[in-house]
Amino acid sequence: MVWERLRHLLDETLLNFRRGGWGVVASIGAITVAFLVTGTFLLLTLNLGTVVAQWAEDFQVIVFLTDAITPEQVTLLRKRLEGELAVREVTYVSREEALADFRKQIRGQESLLEGLKTNPLPASFQLRIQKQHQTATALGQLAVSLRRMEGVEDVLYGQEWVDRLTSLVQVMKILGIVIGAVLGIASLFIVANTIRLAVYARAQEIEIMRLVGASRSYIQIPLILDGTLQGGLGAALALGMLYVLFRATLWQLGASAPLIFSGAELGRFLDVEYRMGIVGVGALLGAVGSLVAVRRFLRA
Amino acid sequence: MIQMFHVSKIYPKEVVAVSDITLHIQRGEFVFLSGPSGAGKTTLLRLIFRDELPTSGQILVNGRNVVRLRESKLPALRRSIGVIFQDFKLLMDRTVYDNLHLVARVLGVPEAVSRRKIGRLLKEVGLLQKADEIPYKLSGGEQQRVAIARALMSDPAILLADEPTGNLDPDLALDVMRLLIEVNIRGTTVVVATHNRRLVSEMGQRALILKQGRLMEETH
Fold it and tell me: Does B110 contact A at CB distance below 8 Å?
């Protein structure tokens, strides 16, 4: 009995699917597009967010030192820097360490450095800044006062950039949510419509089933499963395409990417939770869409 | 088996289909529901398997009050009643076998059992050779018999037939009536709606005469 029921469910669902023909294809296609667009935003936002967070953490202020600086001056400078209220942590990076770090960052393209006879990189202090001082103006003032110190070649701080990028990520996040919602609702209607067509195409069969004693759920569940399948399949397809696009983009960026995103973990595709979530939301959209269509029909 | 108490059905715009009907059909009876077209025969049948709800009055079928039946109990009622529709309601995009198989699936009958049963029913109505035909290609009389076989798939306690001889020539009509009587002899309560009064008098069964939605007379 249970086996018969399951078989019926599977048969009916696949039957609907096959009979739907181009309607089903269009429906899945629409969901795929909706999820591809939304997924792209999600992926960009997440990756950019990681990069920006990493930047904010790592590159708050870098104090480059002149090549002529003496060890005594370095010690003195360190003391003064550690005395600054805004500074949380001071790390000294020697010229050799700087070169080694750089080598690591451009791994695979070390040949770029082969022509170098001398080390072109300066020694530096990398400063981590207290949370409450992490504003563009505060860091600007700090930079000005640091530049006046002896042995300091230049001061670099990226706070303004970090601020800008952070707000960019915010805007993208909101944009992604809005676009995702609009496209999600649109695909809901498309699935509802596809299922409604499927129901109309089988109106006589459904009527006969009701007249010979089929329960409401017996008729509804295969149709709802059909919509669920369409939604889930569309979302899964979008995820696959997104992955291919993502890989292709990374490959295109190739050499320059490690430099741009130095320090940050680059090129993370969506985590398993996100992937399952996307397919789940697709399936849910399909289920709700078909439920709406089926309910309306069976009430009439 | 079927009891009606002061049953009326009024459609929108005050169209009275049946009016103040009280009747009693015993278990195992064979009853004609007779009267001219538009007298309310089809409506009366649809009230029995609750395809329609009455505007007023009560209907008991097999001990159950159909009017107050909950939605969840409807499948059980429908499974106890076989219906032969005036327009047959056969699916023209699949075979005779599949038309019957649809009912087996709804009832959750295991595959092996349903295959045997379909074979037996098709043999009874003389259509075993046509199992793989599309109903569209069958004659009116053959389609009618497919409809009868399908109505019997659930071994119903009650069989309702709406104008089962409407489109048939007299010989075929008698064949179909014989088939229905056989079903009745095996214990099923049979109600046949027909406008053919000659057929009713030839068969000599109990007949309820409807005229303009009212029960006029009973003949035996």
Answer: yes
User: Which of B83, B91, B103 is nearest residue A204 as measured by Cβ atoms?
Assistant: B91
Report how many helices (DSSP H) and strands (DSSP E) chain A contains, helices first. Answer: 10, 4
Q: Which CATH number belongs to the domain containing residue B45 in this structure?
A: 3.40.50.300
Pairwise CA distance, residues A155 & A99, whole Å: 19
Taking the domains of chain A in order of start, what are their residue ranges? 2-55+166-299, 60-157
Which residue, among A10, A212, A299, would best test binding to B if mutated, counting the most B CBs under 10 Å from its CB? A212
Within this chain, do residues B56 and B161 fall inside the same structural domain, yes or no? yes
| B111 and B214 belong to one structural domain | no
Please indicate whether, in this complex, the C-beta atoms of A205 and B91 are within 8 angstroms of each other.
yes
**CA-to-CA distance for A34 and A185, rounded, in angstroms?**
10
**Residues in B touching A210 (Cβ below 8 Å):** 78
Q: What is the per-residue pLDDT across A42-73, written as a single tens digit (0 to 9) for each?
A: 888 888 887 777 766 665 788 888 888 888 88
Verify whether the Cβ–Cβ distance A210 to B76 is below 8 Å. Answer: no
Identify residues of A whose CB sits under 8 angstroms from chain B CBs: 1, 4-5, 8, 204-205, 207-216, 218
- On chain A, the residues whose CB falls within 8 A of the CB of B154 are 212-213
State whether B8 and B108 are in the same domain. no
* Residue B47 located in a structural domain: yes
**Secondary-structure class of domain A60-157 per CATH:** alpha beta
A68 CB burial (10 A radius; 0-12, 13-18, 19+)? exposed
CA distance B80 to chain A (A): 9
This complex has an ipTM of: 0.88
Task: Provide the chain B residues 165-184 that lie in CB contact (below 8 A) with chain A.
Answer: none
pLDDT of residue B196 exceeding 80:
yes
Residue B179 lies inside a defined structural domain of this protein: no
Please say which residue of B101, B136, B155 terminates a domain: B155
Three-state DSSP state, A269: coil
Torsion of CA B168, B48, B119, A217, to 10 degrees: 130
Sign of the dihedral defined by the CA atoms of residues A259, A264, A270, A272, in that order: positive
Distance in angstroms (rounded) separating the CA atoms of residues A37 and B46: 52
- Determine the pLDDT at residue B185: 95
Q: Are residues B160 and B68 in the same domain?
A: yes
